Amino acid sequence: MHDYSDKELLEMFRESDFQNFAFKQIIKKYQERLYWHIRKIVISHEDTDDILQNTFIKIWKGLHQFREDSKLYTWLYRIATNESLTFLKQKKKRQYIPFMEVEHHLMNTLESDEYFNGSQIQLKLQKAILTLPEKQRLVFNMKYFDELKYEDMSNILDTSVGALKASYHHAVKKIEKYLKDN
Amino acid sequence: MHKHYKISDIGKQQPFKVPDNYFKDLPERIMERCEKKEQKRSVVQIIKPTISLAAMFIGVALIAYLAIQVIDQPDGETTYQQEDIAEAEYYNQNELMEDINSGESKQLKQDSEQTDQYIEYLLNEDIDYTTLINELEESPKKGEDNP
Fold first, then answer.
1. Which end of chain A is more exposed for a tag (fewer CB within 10 A), N or C?
2. Structural domain of residue A26, as residue ranges?
3. 61-100 in A: which are within 8 Å (CB) of B?
């Protein structure tokens, strides 16, 4: 299969005859990256599946207006991040979960997740990540697992590079302390 | 004693997994949803102008109807009521005056006829005023004595 560049895909999408084909290629190209990004935020596979589908539907609706001022994948990440955070907020409201207990709730989900197949130390790392504040958690996952550049993260999260570096540094320290103490 | 783990010792592999064929089937599932949304949107786009036009006509007709109701009906009712009251007043005044006049004149006529008869009787019987008053005062007592 030919790997289309983002530019080629966007050009094809603008031609009505190729619109569906181009969009399907965009899904294939980014589905896994976006899936894992969302999954690390909401933990459960079912929730991730819902959010990912909604994310792509939003992308489908908004892609006509997408101006190439930013990279396509940072724009996609931004939508996926917003959808995931909105989902967590709604979950808090729906299930009356107190703000401080969301991470605890996610930790329970992690322990009972039938689609978790990591080792004990990986489980411990995921638990350590869940003890972080929401923003630090996002920053850590995007930097450590997705290996995004700080400049791209800055576009996705609307935060300065300096603040992101500081967030990541604090997150690493907290995680290492958690691993040491537990 | 706890082993001191560094993050770099753990590695970056995903500890999560997904159901079999999940990523293979996902693009089709998403495309189906997108196409359904698109169909709904195009149906709405086709129907929308017609519905808007129909709604506009209904709105104009409704406003016109209400305007007619507001302008005509209350005035008509007022006119009717005013006429009705005026007629009733006119009728009542005339009727009342007629009734009063005829009733009064009959009563007055009767009263004056009776007064004439009493005066004539008193003159004929030669009864003066004092005797008449005494008789009148005594007559209830007589009535009480003779049940």
1. N
2. 1-117
3. 61
